[in-house]
Design brief:
97 residues; alpha+beta; Alpha-Beta Plaits; 2 helices; globular
């Protein structure tokens, strides 16, 4: 399994775009829970998204992106990564004693 950085240029946000945002967020959360998307970031000016996708090939990344409700508003650029270091929050283990 490889990691891919996907830089996504976003089209202007019209009313139809905004109506699909909740669906997009739900899909991203689902894909993150599945381990298919490792990170997802939006530029402050809302012009670009970046995500790291875990997939076997660039074609598999495109298939994953095709599941996005907002895909019609996106122009992706996909780059295979040699590695990706990500800081994750660690929740301490609870003792049942």
């Amino acid at each position: 399994m490889s990691h891919f950085m996907v830089e996504i240029a976003l089209a202007d946000m019209d009313e139809a775009f905004m109506e699909k945002v909740p669906e997009q967020r739900a899909k991203i959360n689902e894909m993150m829970e599945q381990g298919r998307i490792l990170s997802y970031s939006l530029a402050a000016d809302r012009s670009k998204l970046w995500c790291i996708v875990s997939a076997d090939s660039e074609l598999a990344v495109l298939e994953a992106l095709a599941e996005f409700p907002l895909i019609d508003y996106m122009t992706p650029d996909i780059i295979e990564l040699m590695f990706s270091n990500v800081v994750s929050l660690r929740v301490p283990m609870f003792s049942l004693n």
